[in-house]
């Protein structure tokens, strides 16, 4: 009996050994499908029959259904299945073999590919045999029939990429959330845990090859989405919103979908379209509101969001929130750039710090206005750019070479507060009822006053009609404000005495950078060379008008030589008996001899293109702009220098003067009596006046042609 039991146990042991040996031999059975795994670097691990072990380079192993291959950050392995398909696995990739079928009519290979980077190369079908590769990734299903493609899961972001390197029209398809898209060569898609695959993204396959070769060489690389996809660059104001603005509504703003939440933190939200910042563009005024921005339709990688808002005095830290592709909130606190009339909330993420890009953003305002949004690209060196407002700040800028800032909305408010220079920034505060004058504040020194609203003098980034109408101060006594008349009567002509120049003295030298104010006196012809005070008293006693009429101007001419063989004449028509020489002339680069010769006459301009001389031209004087260390020139003789030849005749006109045609007539705005430019300065060959001190000529310097200054 004991012998029989021992015999049975021995036979059972032999049976178990035989079965076990057969199971081991199945892995080496050439009739069974298997894939060969080969490590190209260390840090490659195979998992066979549930046991994981390191796979050294040069010692390939076989993987069958259920086995897997894993590489870490620096690992690199290749998996081949017959002559059907080969897969490269890099950067934390994990591949599991799910099916290996060598069916003669339709061979199939199915893998699970999780995380990491995989290049899949499926040989094209031949002789009517359709070769199929199916991959189940973390977020999608990919099917291929003869193609080469790259599947990448980003290391720090829940986002996958499918890049078709070589694929026919229907060779490669990706399916996510029930939506299938095809990818031909040069087309990529990103896939997130939420929603379908992205819209097609065009790329250069050569760039993918460069990125992939660097990984194969073991060189660390940035995320493929940052390397192969351009940064988002979009600037949109709220006026571009399409759709009904109402609680719970979905509207579009460019490529961005915007949801207006129906409920706020404290109750129902309200939204109204109104121009909050007076720039002529409708904004969204919100009370306890929340805007949800879906950025998935944007073409480009979003790593910077700037939202421009206005109206809310304080902006809590959670006013702007951003979310990753899985709609997980990112702990990136916004910065606030406060401007005069609005604020810009901005958030940034950096690829070099492993931070995630944005697929969604939310704006919460208890009581304020959404003005616009900017998806801001980085600088050329890849660093995050400064916050970019969605709309320009509502400033005005001086476009004329010079513009007077006055105490009231009229040229009767003289003298001016100051002369504004070209490019000076101004904050618009209000306007006159007719819109002809603006109340402004200078950005550089805070001075306030009135300027002409003529677009030839000033340009504004705000709708002027939206500015409030402000009251004007009383017009100064004795200086009634000129008004426009529908029909100009036949002008009367009166003669004026020759203007007498005041300051600066002849030959005076000024430092470069300082201003030069010219002044003079002039009286109608009855003065007969009496002293200025007595002449003015006599004229007033006789009831003779001593102020300039609407069509009378002082004509100031400034001559200078941009080159040895040329003299330019810069001409200005002004209403005051003083003039600040414009800034563009205050430069050593304007003249070769650093001198400026000036004279004054009285003219009448009864109509456009017509100028009549009412007085003899004054004496000519010279002043210099020089650096401090340069030698001061010898003062000029006190005798009256010979006037420089000009186009303007010197004879006093008769009762019916002849109109003097000008080369480039400029229309006079009838609603804004301002200084009006005359002819465009042209080069006038002339000899150097003998009675004006000259400097030793130097080599001529190239200069820009000056433009006439308009000084209302």
Salient structural properties:
Jelly Rolls; mainly beta; SH3 type barrels; single chain; disordered C terminus; 4 helices; 9-stranded antiparallel sheet; 47 strands; 12-stranded antiparallel sheet; 712 residues; 36% strand
Terminal Cα separation, in Å? Answer: 131 Å
CATH first level of the largest domain: Mainly Beta
Overall mean confidence score, pLDDT: 79
As a whole number of angstroms, the C-alpha radius of gyration is 42 Å
Going by CATH, the architecture of the largest domain would be Sandwich
> Remind me, CATH topology of the largest domain?
Jelly Rolls
Fraction of residues in helix? under 10%
What ranges have pLDDT less than 50 throughout 5 or more consecutive residues?
11-27, 478-490, 629-710
Find the structural class using helix and strand composition: mainly beta
Provide the β-strand percentage band.
Answer: 35-45%
* Principal-axis shape: elongated
Number of domains: 4
The largest pleated sheet is described as:
12 strands, antiparallel
Number of helices: 4
Could you give the count of β-strands? 47
What report would you give on this structure?
This protein is mainly β. The chain folds into 4 domains: 32-228, Sandwich (Jelly Rolls), CATH 2.60.120; 234-375, Jelly Rolls; 396-466, Roll (SH3 type barrels); 500-661, Immunoglobulin-like (Sandwich). The strands form 7 sheets. Strands 19, 20, 21, 22, 23, 24, 25, 26, 27, 28, 29 and 30 form a 12-stranded antiparallel sheet that branches. The chain has a 9-stranded antiparallel sheet with strand order 4-1-6-7-10-13-14-17-18, with helices on one face. β41 and β42 form a beta hairpin. The radius of gyration is 42 Å and the shape is elongated.
């Amino acid at each position: 009996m004991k012998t029989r039991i021992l015999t049975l146990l021995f036979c059972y042991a032999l049976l178990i050994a035989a079965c076990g040996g057969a199971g081991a031999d199945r892995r080496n059975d050439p009739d069974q499908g298997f894939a060969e795994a080969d490590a190209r670097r260390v840090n490659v691990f195979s998992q066979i029959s549930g046991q994981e072990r390191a796979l050294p380079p040069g010692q390939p192993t076989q993987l069958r259904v259920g086995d897997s291959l894993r590489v870490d950050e620096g690992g690199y392995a290749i998996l081949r299945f017959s002559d059907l398909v080969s897969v490269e696995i890099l950067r934390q990739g994990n591949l599991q073999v799910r099916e290996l079928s060598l069916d003669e009519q339709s061979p199939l290979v199915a893998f699970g590919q999780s995380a990491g980077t995989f290049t899949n190369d499926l040989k094209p079908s031949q002789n009517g045999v359709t070769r199929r590769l199916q991959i189940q990734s973390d977020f999608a299903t990919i099917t291929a029939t003869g193609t080469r493609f790259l599947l990448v899961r980003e290391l720090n972001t829940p986002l996958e990429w499918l890049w078709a390197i070589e694929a026919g029209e229907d060779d490669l398809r990706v399916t996510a959330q029930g939506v299938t898209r095809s990818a031909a060569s040069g087309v990529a898609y990103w896939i997130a845990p939420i929603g379908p695959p992205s819209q097609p993204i065009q790329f250069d396959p050569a760039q993918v090859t460069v990125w992939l070769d660097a990984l194969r060489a073991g060189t660390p690389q940035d995320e493929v989405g940052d390397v192969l996809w351009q940064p988002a660059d979009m600037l949109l104001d709220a006026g571009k919103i399409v759709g009904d603005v109402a609680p719970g509504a979905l509207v579009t703003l460019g490529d961005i979908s915007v949801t207006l939440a129906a409920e706020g933190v404290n109750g129902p939200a309200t939204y109204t379209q109104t121009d909050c910042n007076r720039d002529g563009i409708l904004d969204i005024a919100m009370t306890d509101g929340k805007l949800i921005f879906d950025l998935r339709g944007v073409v480009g990688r979003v790593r910077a969001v700037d939202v421009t808002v206005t109206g809310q005095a304080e902006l809590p830290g959670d006013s702007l929130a951003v979310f990753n592709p899985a709609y997980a909130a990112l702990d990136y606190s916004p910065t606030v750039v406060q401007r005069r009339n609005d604020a810009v909330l901005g958030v940034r993420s950096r690829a070099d710090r492993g931070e995630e890009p944005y697929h969604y953003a939310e704006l919460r305002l208890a009581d304020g206005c959404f003005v616009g949004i900017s998806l801001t690209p980085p600088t050329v060196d890849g660093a995050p750019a400064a916050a970019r407002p969605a709309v320009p700040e509502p400033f005005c800028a001086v476009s004329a070479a010079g513009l007077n800032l006055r105490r009231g909305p009229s040229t009767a408010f003289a003298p001016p507060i100051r002369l504004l220079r070209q490019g000076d920034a101004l904050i618009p505060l209000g306007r006159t009822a007719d819109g002809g004058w603006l109340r402004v504040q200078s950005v550089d020194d805070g001075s306030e006053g009135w300027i002409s609203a003529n677009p030839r003098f000033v340009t504004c980034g705000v709708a002027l009609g939206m500015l409030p109408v402000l009251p004007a101060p009383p017009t100064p006594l004795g200086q009634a404000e000129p008004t426009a008349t529908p029909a100009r009567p036949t002008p009367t002509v009166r003669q004026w005495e020759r203007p007498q120049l005041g300051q600066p003295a002849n030959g005076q030298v000024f430092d470069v950078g300082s201003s030069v104010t010219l002044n003079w006196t002039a009286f109608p012809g009855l003065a007969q060379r009496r002293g200025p005070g007595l002449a003015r008293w006599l004229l007033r006693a006789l009831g003779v008008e001593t102020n300039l009429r609407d069509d009378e101007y002082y004509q100031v001419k400034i001559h200078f030589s941009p080159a040895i063989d040329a003299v330019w004449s810069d001409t200005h028509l002004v209403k005051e008996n003083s003039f600040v020489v414009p800034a563009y002339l205050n430069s050593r680069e304007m003249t070769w001899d650093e001198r400026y010769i000036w004279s004054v006459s009285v003219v009448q301009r009864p109509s456009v293109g017509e100028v009549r001389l009412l007085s003899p031209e004054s004496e000519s004087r010279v002043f210099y702009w020089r650096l401090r260390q340069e030698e001061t020139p010898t003062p000029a003789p006190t005798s009256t220098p010979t006037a420089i030849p000009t186009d303007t005749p010197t004879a006093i006109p008769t009762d019916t003067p002849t109109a003097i045609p000008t080369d480039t007539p400029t229309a006079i705005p009838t609603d804004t009596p301002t200084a009006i430019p005359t002819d465009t300065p042209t080069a006038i060959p002339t000899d150097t006046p003998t009675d004006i001190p000259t400097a030793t000529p130097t080599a001529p310097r190239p200069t820009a042609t000056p433009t006439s200054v308009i000084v209302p």
